[in-house]
Amino acid sequence: MGGADTAVKGGAGESANGVTAGSKSGLETPAVTGESPSVANASGQQLSSAALTARKAIERDGYKDVQGLAKGSDGLWHAQALRGNTQVQVTVDRAGMVSAQ
């Protein structure tokens, strides 16, 4: 806790440590493009609220051990999960409906 300068500079709304004024933590969720999926549970990353919603929908549908949760360029969340002891590919659509592939 070494007294870092966090005062807002100029009119740009950016603090001395690069955090945009008004953001809660300075950690912004990157924009998702159609070029590469957004991996929601890669090591070291926290799940976004949309990813948490998708994960919870999968678990509510009776799946467990959800892995590889990523938003595809098709707008669907894709993951692998266990149904019993069987690994299944699942998707979650915009309405929260879970489908096994």
Task: List the defining traits of the structure above.
101 residues; mainly beta; globular; 1 helix; 2 domains
Kindly describe this structure.
This protein is mainly beta and 101 residues long. The protein has one helix at residues 49-60; strands at residues 8-9, 14-15, 38-39, 64-71, 77-83, 86-92, 98-100. 14% of the residues are buried.
List the helices and strands and how they pair.
Blueprint: E1 8-9, E2 14-15, E3 38-39, H1 49-60, E4 64-71, E5 77-83, E6 86-92, E7 98-100
Antiparallel strand pairs: 1-2, 3-4, 4-5, 5-6, 6-7
Summarize the structure.
It comes from Enhydrobacter aerosaccus. Helices cover about 10% and strands about 30% of the residues. It has about 100 residues and is mainly β.
| End-to-end separation | 50 Å
- Count of alpha and pi helical runs: 1
Taken from the alpha-carbon principal axes, the silhouette is globular
- State the helicity in percent bands: 10-25%
Biased composition (Polar residues): 35-47
Region (Disordered): 1-47
Protein name: Peptidase propeptide and YPEB domain-containing protein
